[in-house]
Design goal:
Largest sheet: 5 strands, antiparallel
Helix content: 55-70%
CATH architecture of the largest domain: 2-Layer Sandwich
Shape: rod-shaped
Strand order of the largest sheet: 2-1-5-4-3
Oligomer: single chain
Number of helices: 7
Structural class: alpha+beta
Strand content: 15-25%
Number of domains: 2
Radius of gyration: 32 Å
Length: about 210
């Protein structure tokens, strides 16, 4: 190809095509057609003495860019592994808290709970989703919990009360409920703590 065939506008277009196509191929790591087109544009630049140095400089820049992308991908993989490890740790902490933790909606339907909470009401965790927490409370306690949840829904920062818990196949016992709103949702975090002494502790330990 003769030098005069590569006019300034054409050279600028080739540079832009080569940069964008090679950068795109590097980012996606698997587009043969895009890589072929980019290399073709670089070859056209390299075929002219006037632009050969541009082609080499551009290729070097793109190779450096590729290395940067690879390093960024490695950092992202490491960050993801760290986050997943931290999440597993937090889940373990939640599951084995010594108090019963429930996430409920305004109708007291349970959406999440930990293992201690499941033991407190006498069921397995898998059985709890979709059940209503008031199934395991005395009549007065059902009304009291609904009232406290309504107070938090109306704007109170938190609420607490004493409830009569009626676990499956276990005697009724007293528990303290602490209720907090979960920010950005219409759900509430309820923590149940046994009160009333040794009998409750023995029941929880079973």
């Amino acid at each position: 190809m003769s030098d005069h065939a590569l006019e300034p506008a054409r050279l600028a277009d080739l540079r832009t095509r080569a940069a964008s196509r090679l950068a795109g191929a590097a980012a996606t790591k698997g587009s043969p057609a895009r890589m072929t087109d980019a290399l073709s544009a670089l070859h056209t630049l390299a075929s002219s003495p006037k632009t050969a140095s541009d082609a080499l400089a551009l290729l070097h820049e793109l190779q450096v860019h590729q290395v940067e992308l690879d390093l960024q991908a490695e950092e992202l993989r490491e960050s993801r592994a760290e986050l997943e490890s931290a999440l597993r740790h937090q889940i373990e902490l939640y599951q084995f808290q010594p108090v019963g933790c429930f996430t409920i909606d305004p109708c007291l339907v349970v959406h999440e709970l930990n293992q201690t909470a499941a033991r407190m009401v006498g069921i397995e965790c898998e059985e709890a989703h979709g059940m209503s927490l008031d199934n395991y409370l005395s009549g007065d306690s059902q009304l009291l919990l609904k009232e406290r949840v309504s107070n938090v829904a109306a704007g109170e920062q938190s609420a607490s009360c004493l409830l009569k818990l009626r676990p499956t196949n276990e005697p009724e016992r007293d528990v303290r409920a602490d209720i907090h709103a979960q920010p950005g949702t219409q759900r509430y975090f309820v923590v149940l703590t046994n009160v009333g002494g040794e009998q409750n502790s023995r029941s929880e330990a079973r």
